[in-house]
Design a protein that fits this description.
It contains one helix and 16 strands. The chain has about 250 residues and is mostly beta strands. A 14-stranded antiparallel β-barrel has the order 1-2-3-4-5-6-7-10-11-12-13-14-15-16. The longest helix is centred in the first third of the chain and has 4 residues.
Length: about 250
């Protein structure tokens, strides 16, 4: 179900309907929510999802730097996705989304398209994927346009010994000229319980300088009779930790 947000080609091999909810408490008063539903249809699968990102309690300042009170900001995306297999090894997907962004009393509306590809390699346990996200026009607040965060991502996963998954992901934020590298691992302790850990590394290029920063992530997953629970925590140094929990069901 989460492929709606990352790579719609992940819907291609859906065998049954799924529902999922994700809640993330990030840092500095930012929270993220996702609610989605997917269902197999003729020659593929469809997915519906809503992403909601909210920033609360921002301090407002006037032209002379005087405090003018507090305000909030939020972003909402409504997604309609479709994925299907082309061959036994290849799947394609596309996602159309309507976007609304709000800051205090102002708002902007727009649309974007995501497109993705997945491939099951002839090597046992190896999978590849590629996606381009946020293809669309600028969004305008009043008279000022802002480009969407156009992103290209590629990743691979390799299963070792049937119960260990190793993954690698490259995420290129095109307008910001920023690249993020991610490494992940999952160890299935037994059929219903998995432990996970990962590392994220940023590489930001600007002129002749290169600034690196990274972070560790850890979590677990639990599955039982078609239901699943996933939890992850990401430390952010002095500003705190981000917590993410996901609930899902297949039927």
């Amino acid at each position: 179900i989460n492929s709606i947000s990352y790579n719609p080609a992940g819907l291609a091999n859906l065998k049954k309907s799924e529902m999922g909810f994700t809640r993330a408490e990030l840092v500095e008063g930012v929270s993220y929510n996702f609610l989605g539903y997917s269902k197999p249809v003729a020659k593929g699968s469809i997915g519906l999802g809503v992403n909601y990102l909210r920033q609360s309690s921002i301090e407002g300042r006037g032209a002379n730097r005087e405090v003018t009170g507090k305000f909030e900001a939020s972003d909402t995306a409504i997604n309609l996705a479709y994925g299907r297999t082309l061959t036994a090894r290849t799947g394609l997907g596309v996602n159309f989304k309507l976007i609304t962004s709000r800051i205090a009393g102002e708002s902007a509306n727009g649309w974007a398209i995501d497109a993705g590809w997945q491939y099951k390699a002839p090597v046992k346990g190896l999978g590849l994927g590629f996606a381009v996200q946020n293809i669309g026009p600028k969004m305008k607040f009043m008279d000022e346009g802002s480009a969407l965060p156009l992103t290209a991502r590629a990743g691979m996963g390799y299963t070792v010994l049937d119960n260990v998954l190793l993954s690698f992901d490259v995420n290129r934020q095109i307008n910001e000229k920023k690249t993020v590298f991610s490494f992940g691992s999952e160890y299935m302790v037994f059929n219903s319980f998995s432990m996970r850990a990962g590392y994220l590394k940023n590489a930001v290029s600007g002129g002749n300088s290169l600034t690196d920063s990274g972070g560790l992530k850890a979590g677990f997953g639990f599955k039982l009779k078609g239901f699943n629970l996933d939890y992850a925590v990401t430390p952010f140094g002095d500003i705190g930790k981000a917590h993410r929990i996901s609930l899902g069901a297949g039927f």
